[in-house]
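S., here's the first fold you wanted:
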Amino acid sequence: MAGFGSGLARRLYRGEINVDFVGKQRLWYSLSAGLLLVSIAGLIINGLNLGVEFTGGSVFSFKAPTASIEQVRDTFTKQQVHQAIPQTAGDRWRVTTETLTESQGTQLQKAIATEYKLPQNQVDVDLIGASWGGQVSEKALIGLGVFMLAIILYLTMAFEWKMALAAIVALFHDLIITAGVYAWTDFEVTPATVLGFLTILGYSLYDAVVVFDMIKEVTAKLGTGSKMTYSQAANNALNHTLIRSLNTTLVAILPVAAILFIGTTLLGAGTLKDLSLALFVGMLVGTYSSLCVATPLLVTLKEREPKYQQLARRLASRGPGKEPSDAETREPVAAANGATATKRRKK
């Protein structure tokens, strides 16, 4: 079984197996549309569970390993605080409440210290105003906007605007689906989550750039006399980067999965789940979108160009029995790999 798996990997790496990603674009578009609809429905019905950093409120953190959630909630209720949300992180409690005044926060701090026999300075209190939370939200949106603008400019200069458009669509695809997962699971959205979103966008962009770079090299010399259409050349290039994309995703996602499933369940590292869930979902969706969304969309845009339409018509006129052979479809990729190797030797 292991020999079969390693043999399959070698054949994928050498380009001996071609998965028809581009030809199944309707399947990928339908799957993505379904995921997007479910995600948007979650955002509309449930909304995002924004953390106190965005909405404003008060956070109390203290150590009480033997306390129960009912006991902690009752401590706050006695002080006329009725919107307390207790969470455990190891042997510490993190309780979020509505916005309190400084005097109310100090009074509650004393009550917690008395209830659990702690020095008052061991009860941490953070009072976050709604205006400060609004500033955090504004800065997060500005950061996301700047990131998107930088991506568009880079891809347009390094490749072309159609590749930039395909990559941006894939990035929004990843962002909406990841946000939808947060909406349906009711995970709290914190500044760490925003960092996770930016990280997965960068990861998705990396995957798209690797694929687009190979497609650019393979299709650079396609003309009216070529033996394959743009779709066939792009699909062949995609298959040659497939094993690289899968290996990169596997290596990157293992430590993230460890943080998400082991850290948050066994070790009680609750503060890490906000970041790790975004990374885990985003890496999976990002790999899928670079293979099954960005590339098919790019092909759809490029096949509308007159020269590629003319090439497709000429090859179609040859009839179904005269399709290019596997050796012919591998020629452009082999040439591109040879050109890349030559450039490296010259450097």
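And the second, which I think is the more interesting of the pair:
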Amino acid sequence: MGAEAKTEAMRDPAHDGWQGTTDGRPWMLRSLVVLFRWVNIRCLYAVMSVVVVFYMLANGRNRRAIARLFREHLGYGRWRTLCAVYANHFRFGQVILDRFAVYAGCRFRVEIEHNDYYNELASAPGGFIMVSSHVGNYELAGYTLRPEQKRFHALVYAGEKQTVMQNRAKCFAGNNIEMVPVLRDMSHLFIANRALEEGDIVGMPGDRLFGSQKSVTCDFLGAPARFPLGPFALAVQREVPMLSIFVMKEGVKRYRIFVDRIDAGDPGAPKRERMEHAARTFAAQLERIVRRYPTQWFNYYDFWE
């Protein structure tokens, strides 16, 4: 799982400007884990604050895409946009460093809003779906929300660096979590269906399109944007509840997790209508999070393209 699956990762040509992988050679990523055992995370943040400037200059396409978010969809002026673009890249760097800090055994203080929604479903007999997005640090949820009675099957991008995948698997090992790579042969959907049949939890991203996956157009930050229909179609077809989850960084070693219910509308309505209703509910929840934490949006391509 990792390098072997890299060529099979599902891709959308429209999003080729952002590959979704962690930058850096394997030896660099392994060195980070060792470094965190000896160096305070604040020191690495300080280094990141300088390095990120060169990263921004070298990745003009990504920089312009995120600038459009602030200028066109959040209404920022030129100077505020420039500051926000830097803050966004710096925050993304912090989130990546935080992941490696966890691999090295560091701990973060986490507060959870509406944890009762999660506990209620986690202790009930049936399965359910948790819909995530590319904001904040979703991976941290896997180290915080530890289902005891169910297994958590997290659908992940198959093209991620092998070093990252190995460290994730190592950290998830004691948390009853299984990573399921998203592949062209659609085997991940069979695993997700089986997991729900067995009453387990399935985690799926709800803000990126891959391959020929069907989509629904939602109003998002003042303009139409396409969201994948897959997670919501699976929930409606399997008749299982859905939760959204956003893990947002609020301090050097502090995060806040937001859990919310995703309503699929009238149970008697046509299935397609219920799927689209659920997708638009999720899009509205994601918009509230992005407006509250605008520098933690990490989709580095034209999301509204």
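Why I say that: Residues 3-296 form one domain. Residues 1-25 have pLDDT under 50 and may be disordered.

Talk tomorrow,
H.
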